[in-house]
Design brief:
Blueprint (H helix, E strand, L loop, with lengths): L5 E4 L9 H10 L4 E4 L10 H6 L3 E6 L6 H8 L4 E4 L2 H13 L4 E3 L13 E4 L2 E6 L4 E12 L4 E2 L8 H7 E12 L18 E2 L5
Helix pairs in contact: 4-5
Keywords: Transferase
Pfam family, one: CoA_trans
Protein name: Acetyl-CoA--acetoacetyl-CoA transferase subunit alpha
Length: 204
């Protein structure tokens, strides 16, 4: 992964986050990343490790409240933070994945979220036009992957992972285990293998 990449990272407060891949990015010393994620986790956990390592120059997230380090870096001008309402963030990522040109939402009208954005009126009601968020890479976590890359998620680890698999140009999954084809029931597959480019099994 080069410096300056736009990276979608799955997880929710550290749950369902590809920790091994994050550790690898920190070890490589990658810089100037734009990180798109639900939140900044906490210092020493998940995305918080990238923040501490100085790898992040821009963050697009719905919440940074549990990570005082990113708050301090934002205030100091070291990291640019775009705060996006959670539902809007999901829809912007999904829009990129399914080829939509934009999504419209009333969330954020009349607040600082509206600043600098196109506003349209439909049936007398004002809406923001929110642009899709594409990623150069999507780093996601799964409970199981088979040899074809089909993915099964467990419980709350579903969170942002399946939607980010749609919107990353290169998708890398960190499964807890890799299993033979056929072990995952077809109706349990949430991300089909055609979307997955690489797999890195989570260390035991």
């Amino acid at each position: 992964m080069p410096d300056g990449a736009v990276v979608l990272i799955g997880g929710f407060m550290g749950v369902g986050t590809p920790e091994r891949m994050i550790d690898a990015l920190v070890a490589r010393g990658v810089k100037n990343l734009t990180v798109v994620a639900n939140d900044a986790a906490m210092p020493g956990k998940g995305i918080g490790k990238l923040v501490s390592a100085g790898a992040v120059s821009r963050a697009i997230m719905s919440h940074i409240g549990l990570n005082p380090e990113i708050q301090q870096k934002m205030i100091a001008g070291e990291i640019e933070v775009e705060l996006v309402p959670q539902g809007t963030l999901v829809e912007r990522i999904r829009a990129a994945g399914v080829g939509l040109g934009a999504v419209v939402t009333a969330t954020g009208i009349g607040t600082p979220v509206e600043e600098g954005k196109q506003v349209i009126e439909i049936d007398g009601k004002r809406y923001l036009v929110e642009k899709p968020i594409h990623g150069d890479y999507a780093l996601i976590a799964a409970q199981q992957a088979d040899y074809a890359g089909n993915l099964l998620y467990s419980l709350t680890a579903h969170n942002f992972n399946p939607i980010m698999a749609l919107a990353g140009r290169t998708v890398i999954v960190e499964p807890e285990m890799i299993v033979p084809i056929g072990v995952i029931p077809p109706d349990a597959v949430k991300t089909p293998g055609v979307l997955v480019d690489h797999m890195l099994a989570r260390a035991a």
